[in-house]
Amino acid sequence: MTSAKPPVFANADAAAIDLHVLDQDTCEDWLAAAPAMTTNWARTNGFRGAIGQVVVVPAPDGQPAQVLVGYGRAADRARKRFNLAAAVPSLPKGIYRLAEGVAEADRAAESLGWLLAQYRFDRYKSGGDADTHLVAPEGVDATRIEALAAGEFLTRDLINTPAGDMGPDELEAAARDLADQHKASFTVIQDEDLLQQNLPMIHAVGRASDRRPRLIDIKWGNSGPTLTLVGKGVCFDTGGLNLKPGSSMALMKKDMGGAANVLGLAHMIMALNLPVRLRVLIPAVENSVSANAFRPGDVLTARNGLTVEINNTDAEGRLVLADALALATEDTPDLLISMATLTGAARVAVGPDLAPFYTDNEDDAVALAQAAQRLADPVWRMPFHTPYETMIEPQIADLDNAPGGGFAGSITAALFLRRFTADTRYMHFDIYGWTPAAAPARPKGGALQGARALLEALPNMLDLPKGSK
Question: Which of 20, 90, 138, 339 is 20 to 30 Å apart from 185, CA to CA?
């Protein structure tokens, strides 16, 4: 199903080419102290230490003897992520070892960036695997970084796959493969069984497609606090009867990005054997158009009994999430997290790079923000602004799935979801799931957002034993 091979570090005993990572402000001093051959070669090739600049210094036999990599200035690095990875596309194939130039505090992030830079989505064209491998630097937890990178590769692959090859069936198959890999339990409720088991809004959204709607349910772990992840799995969104224009439909293969992100995070949690009882719920549907599609003006009844007036069939993600969240709260998890490519309003607010999140728990907000800073995985807190509750309350039902007026679209969507979480400790992410322009370690395409920060923050959020990171 997936394209990219899981990324790993090179064997520590492998013959490797030394990487000298040079700060732009001290580059000339380093060159002045280097052997004449190295200095002359670097200067002849115009090496100044700018971020991403690479000079391969040859041995007498013409093979690479060492490589000089520009690291820019500290102020430049602070504005960017994965600065070492900027050099990876310019390196000749081989195995590399970090000789100097990256502070110990930055080695984990830069090593992760190197692994993420190996990603290729070549399912539909010949491309080959990346051939620039890194020996894990001293002091780096290689197992952890490999797990983070593998989770991100999984997420990228799932989002990048076109909807024709990534419908509810295929998303179920990917989730089942992940469950099998980690010896987790796996169940699915689909089609008319959704009605029998009181998941009516998942059924309503997905019933117009011949690709049957379903709820995917993974459970893993036997001890520790309970953590439930819910991911929006709308494998393609036409907008339903409120049909999207063509320009807005072009990227709708990524509308299952929430599901892809929680599966990537779930892989990290299970691969690292975090001491939690994990549950993953994914409502997987395709929002299509047919004679039995749900309609504007319909009133649907959710699992928890709340009624929802449909004012826009293109606001379908919150409907399928609502049933899944209501189901999740019945087990009273210690922490409930949803991730979804939910609103364009979030993109207007913070752009594609930041992952907006909502929580009423101040300690969780602080833990996540601090973790995001450490992990180069940017997030931004948004408010559950209670005065806006009246905006999601229509005249003829309990809730409105698409309040008019054009204001606070991400906030009102988050408030809508919160209505289905009872008194459960809850955090919601309104992510984009896509990198619109290539950057170091982040190719254009599907993206993991907020998951690495969450993984880092979970030990604090769930009061896990020390050493659980």
Answer: 339
